Amino acid sequence: MSFRSKITQFQSLIALFILCVLISLLSDKFLTVNNGWNVLRQISVNIVISVGMTLVVLTAGIDLSVGSVLALSGAITAGLLKNGISIPSLNLFIGFSLLGAILAGLIIGSLSGFFSGFTITRFKIPPFVATLAMLTIARGLTMLYTEGFPISELGENFAFFGTGWFLGIPVPVWISGLVILITVLMTQKTRLGRYIYAIGGNENAARLSGININKVKIFVYSVAGMLAAIGGILVTSRLDSAQPNAGISYELDAIAAVVIGGTSLSGGKGTIMGTVLGAIIIGVLNNGLVLLDVSPFWQQVVKGMVILVAVIIDKQNSEK
Amino acid sequence: MNKLLKNGLGLLILGVVAYNSVYFKKLDEVKKGNSKNTLDTKVYANSFYQEKILTNTDKAIAINKLTDKLKANPDETFKQYAHSLGIGNIRYFLVKATGKITKINENTLDFDVDGKPYSIATEFIFGNAVRDASGIITMTTFENTMDFNNVSAELNEIIRNRVVPDLKKKATLGSQISLIGAVELNHKHLKLNEIEIVPVFLSDK
């Protein structure tokens, strides 16, 4: 392996290292244990969503609805936990335990993803359009369900998922770690993982080799929806409040993490660990810009530039 | 047989999860239980105003003394006299003042206290100054933030409906007014020439 190809292989890691060195030179608050946990806690949600996005992008698709699905799932979980379901005509109240509310949130997320996957495969709608429609539908449903108001005061047990610690590590970090482990094993060690890469690499060849493409795609979008729901539960738990406008533009951060992590937007190439690195780079960049007191407007410009540079590098590498 | 066992096990797990996920009650009972726990914020605010705020007015600092201290040592003055429930820069002070009405504006009264100008709010009574300035209310007393915020709104309503009309009646040009009030100041961006007092109680002296 040549020196250039070695550099290419580890470019995200090198970028992260350079970024950390630069920020730690400019701010003495960066390399502290507290700040480290803060960054990890903050990026946990993006990691969970980005992992789902990676699976979708590996099949040459895109999911623009994850931010809205995150808000919808968070709202449903919070609403069921706090208010349950009242059916006045039957004089019946259905209450939800913590487990029940979380499961309901996850089911809603998965169903949203399933719906996107179904419309993409059944009606041959481009993923961009189908998930854009789901973005609007999920946001509208969130507004309808919450009537535009936050749902707050969800209890200490629920807050544990977003703010708690287990064995000295924040719970969101454990959850994102578990998500990474399962998806890495799925993509690298199972037949399903190979199907996902095959579909993204060459869909026609995959179909001819007997892979049920529609089934795999629907599964991937459902998983992305479920992971967005996990993100929604983490955000809601952390804030102790389900905000109707939660998750706005989260899909862009997720796509940025996927691209910076080296996953090709044309599908078939990329890794979960690359995306995790991408999410860490975005998290460290965000944290560094805040520590250096850079204006939020400039932060967006810098983030956009980094994504642009990452895509250019990716394109140049793939052309070589 | 193997498939039957698998399906059976799956159904059993599903049953256990469902059993631990939802519970059913009569809607009437739930509503009855909820109404017992509902705080009447109007009643609470009224008794809080009468029994807590009005009986703690001796803690108020003379407004001129406050501004002098703020000029000399703002950090220490904020530490000693300010109250706040949040972590931001906004802090509240309970003040007392006796002075002359020098101008009657649409929304405020210009108020001169021994040569120092202030204004008294008469129209826009909003925010948490009345609730928080006394420093005797805490969030932990309430089950939720909505009740806590509603108490603040009800206190403002008391000021609007009881204190302000009385103040407007007494506040003729050149008249002498004594009051207890609440003042909101920004610790980081302190502006001592724009102090507005929210009237809390009109005193006789």
Provide a descriptive summary of the structure in words.
The complex is a heterodimer of chains A (320) and B (205). The mean pLDDT of chain A is 90. With 320 residues, chain A is mainly alpha-helical. Chain A has a single domain (12-19, 27-319), classed as Orthogonal Bundle (ABC transporter involved in vitamin B12 uptake, BtuC). A two-stranded antiparallel ribbon of chain A has the order 1-2. A two-stranded antiparallel sheet of chain A has the order 3-6. The radius of gyration of chain A is 20 Å and the shape is globular. Chain A has helices spanning 3-9, 11-26, 33-58, 66-83, 98-122, 127-146, 156-163, 171-189, 191-201, 203-208, 213-239, 250-260, 272-291, 296-319; strands spanning 85-87, 92-96, 151-152, 165-166, 169-170, 241-242. Chain A contains 14 helices and 6 strands. In chain A, strand 4 (165-166) and strand 5 form a beta hairpin. Chain B is of the alpha/beta class and 205 residues long. Chain B has a single domain, classed as Envelope glycoprotein gp160, DUF2291, alpha/beta domain (OB fold (Dihydrolipoamide Acetyltransferase, E2P), Beta Barrel), CATH 2.40.50.420. Chain B has 7 helices and 7 strands, in the order αβααβααβββααββ. In chain B, a hairpin with a 2-residue loop joins strand 4 and strand 5. Classes of the chains: A mainly alpha (320), B alpha/beta (205).
